[in-house]
Amino acid sequence: MSTDNIHKTVAEASSLISWDTWDRIKHTESFVLLSSVLFVLLFSYAFGRAPVVSDVFQGYHGLAITILIWSIFALGFNLLLGQTGLLSFGHAMFFGTASYAAALFAIHVYNDPLAVIVVGTLAAVALGAVAALILLRLHTVYFSIVALAIGQFLYFLAREPLVEITKGINGLEVPRSAVFGVFELEHQYGGLLGELVVNNLYLFVGVFFVAVVASITRIRKSPYGLIFKAIRENETRTAFVGLDVWRYKFAAFLLSAAIVGLAGGLMAVNTQFAGVERLYWSVSGDVVVMTVLGGLGTLAGPVIGTFVFFYFKGIVNGFPTLGNYWLLLLSLSFTTVVWVYRDGIWGMITALTGALRDPRELVAAVRARVTGGDSTGDAPGGED
Amino acid sequence: MALLETRGLTKEFGGLTALDDVDIDVEEGELVSLIGPNGAGKSTLINTITGRLHPTEGQVSYAGTELVGMKPFEIAQLGVGRSFQTASILPELTVRENVQVASFAAEHGSFRVNFFRRRDSFDEVQSRTNDILDTIGLDSKARMEAGSLPYGDKRRLEVAIGLATDPDLLFMDEPTAGMSPTETQMTVNLIHDLLADWGMTIFLVEHDMDIVFDVSDRIFTLHQGRLIAQGTPEEIRENPAVREAYLGGGEQ
């Protein structure tokens, strides 16, 4: 009798953590915040130093920092493409301009990493306001192409006519300086902290990464998150309910520019350098690939996409023989993933974990795919 | 003065005159219907009044405000709502989110800076959304993706979005098209409720003549862009020009 009771209690206790509860928890802001903090703390270690895991990844600390910064870039880009449905092929303009602004401010005015990054972000926002006045008049492919054109215009402008300021193809050097004159970015930690984060530079970038993830989560849960999606789905309908679509698109554009600008500023601090190649069109292309590969419109997607991109570029690239074909291998993976899963790698993960929960759904999904039925049954990755 | 007035409203597409010198008046609190054979210009008239199309000539005034030249969102903010002929919903959003977008527009105006506030913290928006879902009878499907709704429910959601914008004047463009008899009856009941309990003014475009003659206070008849008759259902039923347009037009 008593054992029955115990069994009952155990069964009830385990049902407390049901799938429904998990679904609720995983969308809360505190869970997202906690996950991003844990991710930052463990990422460099798992990537570069942990036993077994790092042997698989063969990563290193410097690349981990680069991936965090580019993840911020991809998250900012995704706010515009994934949430609002505006595909810009010119987001390098914010990355590169912020980098230059940060470097110029550090060289000519005041060199504190924090101030430098704020200046970079503000420069990107200012550029965003001007670019939006031109771009938001345009739709679909015209929007994308003119964004590309503005980016390339700035690239050539920085390369030749403004060579006095930008030092052209040589670029600008940003001397290292301490945050508030106290926290040296190169400072190395010992013990467990040293094992996890190595130095202040990683912590500095990590704090911004967490802040960006938290901000984007909040924006997605705000009225803007909903209205951005509404604009993506049906712009005309959104206008006819009484919303000023132009101003909401303008807001999305500026928020996106600010986050990408932050990444650009961080890049200048991280590499101690700002150069013209950050304005080049292929940078805009890379961020599109990262975002779409990882999972459009989701939070984890752009981060995963950035990781995979740099894994190919930084690690596979160094493999004997195979390394020569890293770009080909990346393209093959990209095509395969996006062909099968519209929501990229993150969509693939959510579909697979969803299938593990309910095998019947998996069978139905496979059958639908084989018989050529529509694939709307795919779990939308991190929707909301 | 009437709530809505058009004067000499004309819309030309190239050489084609879709609306020809249309004068209509809609009084506050009444239900008027617009009928006419296919291609008579019914949708063009709605689109011209609500700002989707710009008239070639003429004026539209709503509660004393000139609407010509205003953007659709500005007209919506004045209290002119509309539901679309084809279910113009937001397919990848949930039913609840579809209504919520319109509730935000009604409660917060056309634009507000609040991107760092959670949307479930706006109680007035939540309660408006709940009220509308309850009124339309979609509350049990609130968490479904709108695109996966059956056709009749999509049409109801379309009306729900229009209602959530809190209009004083609501344009309903063929709200019962494609609905089952039960759903049609629900929609007719809803229209009666909106007039009686919500004090709304309704401008209905409808193909189902039984509904039109049942619910309308007055009926406008459009034919080849011209207003050929207006009056009570009895007057319209007996009107020879209307009979001619429908029987002689050969389109119905």
From TrEMBL, chain B:
Using the record's annotation, list all stretches that form the ABC transporter domain: 4-249
Keyword flag Nucleotide-binding: yes
Q: Name the Gene Ontology biological process terms.
A: amino acid transport
This entry carries the following GO cellular component terms, namely:
plasma membrane
Keywords (alphabetical) are: Amino-acid transport, ATP-binding, Nucleotide-binding, Transport
The signal peptide, as residue positions, is: none
Any one Gene Ontology molecular-function term assigned to this protein's record: ATP hydrolysis activity
InterPro entries assigned to the protein according to its UniProt record, in alphabetical order = AAA+_ATPase, ABC_AA/LPS_Transport, ABC_transporter-like_ATP-bd, BCA_ABC_TP_C, P-loop_NTPase
Q: Return the Pfam families for the record.
A: ABC_tran, BCA_ABC_TP_C
Give the protein's function: Probable component of a branched-chain amino-acid transport system.
Protein family: Belongs to the ABC transporter superfamily.
- UniProt protein name: Probable branched-chain amino acid transport ATP-binding protein LivG
